[in-house]
Amino acid sequence: MANCTDNDDILQNGTVLFQLIVYTPVFSLGVPLNMIAFWVFCCKFKKWTMTRVYMINLMVADSFLLFALPFLVYFSMYKHPVDNLCFTIQNIYFTNMPMSILSITLIAIDRYIAIKFPLKSKMFRSPLKSASICGFLWIILIIYSCLRPKFNNSNESVCLQKHSTEPNYSLLFSIIFWYFVPSGIVIFCSVQVITCLKKKMATSTHETKLLQKAIHIVSVNLCVFLVCFSPFYITLLLRFAVDVAGACSLLSEVRASVRICACLANTNCCLDAFCYYFAAKEFKEFSSLFPTNISMRSKVDQIQESQPPTDQVIT
Length: 315
Description:
Blueprint: H1 9-43, H2 50-78, H3 84-116, H4 127-152, H5 169-199, H6 205-245, H7 251-266, H8 268-289
């Protein structure tokens, strides 16, 4: 494997500046917005539903990501060594970004089942089952994040920076199973939901507007998901290809691209908080359109989905 060196300080400094520009407003807005969201969805609503469980799980993951952002900037600016603090932040970061993606995927699956199989879904959907699934995923991701350094077999000296060109096959596993598989599921479920919404017969002008709004929200939600996360995982895949090929001439540019796209992906933890606000605002209108457990909203709009009699309360 070729020994590549990265001496492009200008590119490095520009990447750090970009991180500061992006993460400062994301952190400043994301923290208070997520705190308000926690208060609203944990204290203001009495009954537990499946999507409420998934959304609180998403808020937890987003909050941990927000906590890690200042450390990401600090590590990049001062080339922090690999120590206990580094391992702690790495574990937080590499656990909660996949959890955010998986939480969105679970909401998309739940929405798809509710609309496509409204009768059979009663036996599959319950808040307790949703909480159990989230707990299981947390255990899997925590175990994986703790074992990940053993899989890498690398001796990096700078925290959260890969300078060696040794191919990281655990990274390839993460790209496939923590993003591309979930994104395929989200796309399929969202397209099916939009298709069902378009086929729904409106009985009034008001209902037609609500259907159009629902289609718009689901579509925008899908686009935001893909725009935020796709560039990051695609550039990670490109970095893996560069390492395999030993293309030293591309290393600096690809490394900078990964960091820039990571900034874009991390903005999702703030964008989710804005979606919570619009979800609460639109709840009453959508509950009149979907009075049963057939919910067709975006991942956030589903937080306030109409609560059918079959929903169970977590005890």
